[in-house]
Specification:
By secondary structure, this protein is α/β, with parallel strands linked by helices. The protein has 2 domains: about 30 residues; about 90 residues, Double Stranded RNA Binding Domain (2-Layer Sandwich), CATH 3.30.160.100. About 40% of the residues lie in helices and about 30% in strands. The chain has a 5-stranded mixed β-sheet. The radius of gyration is 22 Å and the shape is globular.
């Protein structure tokens, strides 16, 4: 009886392993997306416009939804004196790096931050898109 039960468990374990492999393979083939918390002032690019600035690397990032763990925070502000932006790299232990950009035009600040984010997402890829 024990031999039959052990043989049954062995088959069940093999089936479970096959199922786990089938499920895991497609997931491993996909590149994980970085999650970006994005906020901008009126007159600055919105989140989809900002992600479009990532060019070929746009598929490597998505805008954060409620409850998501956040990898990067992008903040754009615009005043009469000029625009500024900040790109923060987040980890589970806290903020690791912050880059700040200032310019008269918010679109140029967004371009610079998008370039920095694109390089962080895939530093080996060419910058041409």
């Amino acid at each position: 009886m024990r031999a039959r039960a052990a043989k049954g468990l062995s088959k069940l374990s093999a089936l479970a392993a096959c199922f786990a492999w089938l499920v895991a393979v497609p997931c491993q083939a996909q590149t994980p997306q970085a999650v970006v918390w994005y906020r901008s002032a009126e007159g600055c690019p919105d989140a989809p416009q900002f992600l479009a600035r990532l060019g070929d690397r746009a598929s490597l990032a998505r805008v954060a939804q409620a409850g998501d763990y956040v990898d990067f925070v992008v903040t754009l502000t615009a005043t009469e004196q000029g625009s500024s932006g900040r790109l923060e790299r987040q980890t589970q232990s806290g903020t690791v790096a912050i880059q700040e950009i200032r310019d008269r035009e918010c679109a140029r600040v967004a371009d610079a931050l998008a370039l920095s984010l694109a390089l962080a997402l895939d530093p080996a890829a060419p910058l041409v898109h």
